[in-house]
Design goal:
Mean pLDDT: 96
Order of helices and strands: EEEEEEEEEEEE
Low-confidence stretches: none
Number of helices: 0
Largest sheet: 8 strands, mixed
Distance between the termini: 41 Å
Radius of gyration: 14 Å
Strand content: over 45%
Amino acid sequence: QVQLVESGGGLVQPGGSLRLSCAASGSIFRIPTMGWYRQAPGKQRAFVATLTSGGSTNYADSVKGRFTISRVNANNTVYLQMNSLKPEDTAVYYCNADQIQGIGGRWYRAVWGQGTLVTVSS
């Protein structure tokens, strides 16, 4: 079994910064792509950013230039540095791994964390 656990959410004022972390645990061989999604109140879950193990990034237009995704492959951890936060960034942020290859060759698909709440408000 594998799981993703997020941390780092909280309350921040507009213009402030937060750093989210997501650690994968279990018998993991590799995780090709890790990413972040968010779900604002009353809205569907939406893409924020992804990062491959090779270093390729992709960002939603709404966060480009403000958010930075990074990862440490050795310990299967992904981060989301969020700067210049706006009230519209308020959401539950979810860590995602589209697929995880376990030790022994088993593949796990669409693995999600439990989410961490980010509230941007004065």
